[in-house]
Amino acid sequence: MRIKFWGTRGSIPVPGKNTLKYGGNTPCIEIYNGGDEITIIDAGSGIRELGIEIIKNPLIKKINILISHFHWDHIQGLPFFTPIYNKDYEINFYSSRKKIVPNENIFDVLMQPLFFPVTKKVLNAKINFHGIKEGESFNINGFEISTVKTHHSLGTVSFKLSNDKVKFVYLTDSEIFYDADNNDPDINLIKKHNSDIIDFCRGCNYLVHDTMYSIKDFKEKVGWGHSNNISAAILAAASDSENLMLFHYEPRYTDKMIDSLLSETKKFIKKMNYNFKCAAAKDYMEIKI
Ligand SMILES: [Zn+2]
Ligand SMILES: [Zn+2]
Fold first, then answer.
1. Distance from residue 13's CA to the centre of ligand 1 (Å)
2. What pTM did the predictor assign?
3. What is the pLDDT of residues 135-170, one digit of tens each?
4. Domain that holds residue 166
5. Dihedral of CA 209/210/214/218: which sign?
6. Exposed end of the chain (fewer CB within 10 Å): N or C?
């Protein structure tokens, strides 16, 4: 099985000379086990290139797309995901069924004439929408998919994909709470304010977590619905996760700044004697299981 990152940046794509190492695409992850079915988490700008790869693979006929929420950076690649125009594909979307969420209307919104040159009439794939209740579990392509509401805007969910080989948690956009206006991140406060999320992540092999900000920058962004690297490390420890993957970087962070974010996190993990690995997710990175 292959898990591949196609976009790891938050908010807006940031191509350029300062983002060559970690990449500039917004969130998109592929999970592929061979065979005719592929699963994708989020449809940020990274999904455009993934679509080109899918078209090249004659085996794939069914595409499952899990959408964490409908902020631009998580859906902006969809009109450029070429399988939607091709009648050979069945595409199943899974997202929160909250009333505020567009679901079936997503292509009406994305392909309004004001924003896009063609309307959804040109979509030839067989497209289905599945509204999910936060906390609900369902099965696709040999995975049990569990969900939990994150600490972000309404209708944002985290997905956990489990099978007999792996427990993989995708948890962005989400703010780890610890009364940050009055405290530094602390394991007891984090356990107290995030027990739902810690239970959800418990014992996972991979925790891909929102680390939009360094601990220093986070002080100005408390309440914005995103996390810092130190609280993410504490959450990984509290949930006995095996690997923490930093993810959803602030768009102005250069490669050098993300290198520093990673080294600061690793130093903290060492200082605390925590027993898990940490890496910074980057575009095109692959995990083979
Ligand atoms: Zn985001
Ligand atoms: Zn968001």
1. 11
2. 0.97
3. 999 999 999 999 999 999 988 999 999 999 999 999
4. 2-286
5. negative
6. C
Distance (Å) from CA 174 to ligand 2 centroid = 8
- Which ligand minimizes its atom distance to the CA of 27? 1
Counted domains in the chain:
1
Ligand nearest to the CA of 248: 1
For residue range 59-117, what is the model confidence (pLDDT) as tens digits?
999 999 999 999 999 999 999 999 999 999 999 999 998 877 777 889 999 999 999 99
The gap from C-alpha 84 to its chain's centroid, in whole angstroms, comes to: 21
Strand partners, 213: 228
CATH number for the domain that contains residue 54: 3.60.15.10
Cα–Cα dist 112/202, whole Å? 42
Ligand nearest to the CA of 26: 1
Q: What share of the chain is helix, strand, coil (3-state, %, to 5)?
A: 30, 25, 45
* Selection from 239, 161, 129, 120 nearest residue 2 by Cα: 161
